[in-house]
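Quick one: structure tokens for this chain, please?
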Amino acid sequence: MKIVARLSIVLLSVLLVLPAVLFSQSTPDFLLKGVVTDSVTGATLPAASIQVFNLTDNKLVTGKLSGDAGVFEFRLPAGSYRAEFNYTGYKAFEIARFSLGTTNPVMNTGIIKLISSGKVLDEVIVQAEKSSMTLTLDKKVFNVGRDLANAGGSAADILSNIPSVSVDPEGGIKLRGSDNVRILIDGKPSGLVSFKGGSGLQQLQASMIDRVEIITNPSARYEAEGNAGILNIILKKDKRQGFNGSFEVTTGYPANLGAAANLNYR
């Protein structure tokens, strides 16, 4: 009976100790550690991303962020690995290969110096543009400036963007709802408008216009025409020299075809 009791005690002890032994063998005993810093200032980089991959199948084994002081530690089983280090605004860094095992239980990477990926920009020049609208005693002045919305457009496109001025699909111009409006170019009547009406403004390039003046109470210097007001389109002083012109083609259904050309020399 005593022998049986002793065997039972020994067997019970083995059963209690064996799981602990197996658990200790399956627990990673090998260490990967280091510090992540800035390559220029030497400042530590907290929350840097570190990923460890199995070198055999290139699968992710584990990953974590560096601590407040840029320090990181990994407990890993024996094997061959590679590690990637990433931080916002910095170039990625890689340890292509390292091994952990009984002969090399600790892999101390030391200081990992990440290089900033930021670029130094060339000098930036800021130029002010004139206010889009100014008020004088007898008129409102809308400065076209370099508004990108007018790039590649025409004078009709500019007028359609001015408050109180409307342009219908046929090119008709209305000021405050009235079509009894006179259109001048540089303060003078223009054949471009006289012969073709408001549709002639579609041939005047927006890039040639400096500003538009709206005169709602014309003085005696203007004729009676334009009771609703006067639109005075002021062109840029550096007018294009030489030959210039435009060619217009229209088509519609059914059987509506037309063409027009305008050529002039300055």
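The chain has two domains: 27-114, 133-239.
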